[in-house]
# Entry
Amino acid sequence: MNTIKIDPDRTLGTLERNVFGGFAEHLGRCIYGGIYDEGSPLADAEGYRRDVIAAIKRLRMPVIRYPGGNFVSGYRWMDGIGPKDRRPPRAELAWHTVESNRFGTDEFVRWCRLIGAEPYLAVNCGDGDMREARDWVEYCNGTSDTELVRMRRRNGSEEPHRVRYWGIGNEVDGPWQMGMKTPEEYARAYTEFGKLMRMVDPDIQLIASWTSGWFDDWVERGQLLLEQAPRLVDYMAIHWYVGNREDDFGRYMALSELFEDRLTAAEGLIDAMRVCRKLERPVHLAVDEWNVWYRTRGDDRLEEVYNLEDALVVAMQLNAFIRHARSVKMANLAQVVNVIAPMMTWEDGLVLQTTFHPFEVYSRQAGSVALDAYWEGETFQGGDQAGVRVLDVSATLNPEARQISVFVVNRSLDAGEVEIVLQEGAWAGAGARWVVNGPDIKATNTRENPEAVTAAEERVEASGARVRLALEPHSVTALTLPIA
Ligand code: AHR
# Structure
C-alpha cells in the first residue's frame, strides 16, 4: 500500500509563483509564427497571436525569460527597437538563420503585460559588452531625461518598463555558447556587468548563469561567483534538459533521483558559501531552463512532439521544485510555444501538447506554502537506480483558503492506490481532483486527435484524517481538499 503523510505545520517555505515561469527565445517558430505572427488572421492588430495569448494565460506564467538562450549571446538589443522597417536584419549564428528584429524589447514587454507576466531579460555576455547591458537597463527602466530614455519614449513607452529580473549571459559554461567563459572569466565579467547594471538601477534582481552542462567545474563556478560577487547575485541559474533516448520507461521515470541530487547539491553549495562567507542576503536558485528535450537535438526548430510519458516527467520536475521550494524561487519552462513547448501553432490554430496539462494543473492548484510530505510504498528499479518509489509526490498549502493540494505521479503501468493521511487536523468536505492521462505512455496530441492526453476533473469528498485515492496507470493526479 502506498501512503502519503502530511502535516500542515511541517512546511518547507514559500512556494514562489515564479517557479511556474516560462522562457521565449528567438529560435525557430517561438517568436515569429508563435507569439508574434504579423498578417495572420489569428493575430491581433499588433501581430500577437490571440490563441497563443489565451493558452498561455491558462498556464498562469508569472514571469517570462527572453530573448535567449543561445541566441542572446550574439544579440544586439538596439537592433530590435524603433520603427520596424528600419530595423536591420542580422545573421543569427546560434540557430543559423537571419533575425529580422521585427520583434524586440518593446514588443516583448507589451506581450508580457498582455499575458500578465513579468519580463525577465537576459543580457548578452557572449559577444556583447557591459555598455550594451547597462544601456539596456537604462532604456527599459530609466526615468531621467537621457537619450536612451527619450528613445524609449519615442518608441511609444512613456513610462519605464520596470524590468525587475536581469540575467547576465546564458549557459556560459558550454562550448556551444558564443563567448563561452571559464569560471574565472565569468566571475569577473559577471561582477563588472552586474556592478554597472545595478548602478543604473539599484532595484533590479540579478541572475547569474551557473551551470547547464553540469561539467566537472560546476562547483568551482558557483563558488567563484559567490566569492567574488556575493552582493550582486540574487539567483544562481541552472539548466537541464532530459529525455528517453534509450526508450526505457523505468529509467526515464527514475530521473526524479537526478533532479533531487542536483537540487540538493546546488542548494548545499549555496548554504556552504552562506556559512563560510557569512552571506547575509539570500541567494536563490533559478532553474531558468528546464524541460524534456531529446528528439530534436541537432536541428534548428526544436519542434518536439511530446507524449504522455514526457508529461509525467514534466510533473516530476514540478514536484522537485515544490520539494525544494526553500531554494528554488524561479523556474522557467523552456520554451513557451512551438520550440520544445507545451503548445504548437498552425496557420489556422493551435494544439495543446501533453505537457501543457500537468503544467496547467500544477500552476493553478499549487498553494503558496510548500509542505514536507512523507511518502512510502511500492518501489521499482529504473536504469541503475534501485528502490525508487513508484509514486513521485509533492504537496502545498493554501493558507487563505485552508486547502491542501497533493500532487502524485503514478510511475507504474498499472493502476494503484494511495492513502493520504493528515497528521494534524482533518479533511473537511468537498474538493476536486485532476487526472492527466491518456490511452498509453506514447500517446501524443495531434491536429487530428488533439485530446488524446488531457486533464479530467472530478469532485472528491473527504472527512476525518484519511482519504484513499485510486490512481490510474501512468498518470498525474492533483488533489485539492479543504482542511478543518
Ligand atoms: O532552449 C533551447 C536552448 O537550450 C537554449 O537556447 C539554450 O540556452 C539551451 O542550450
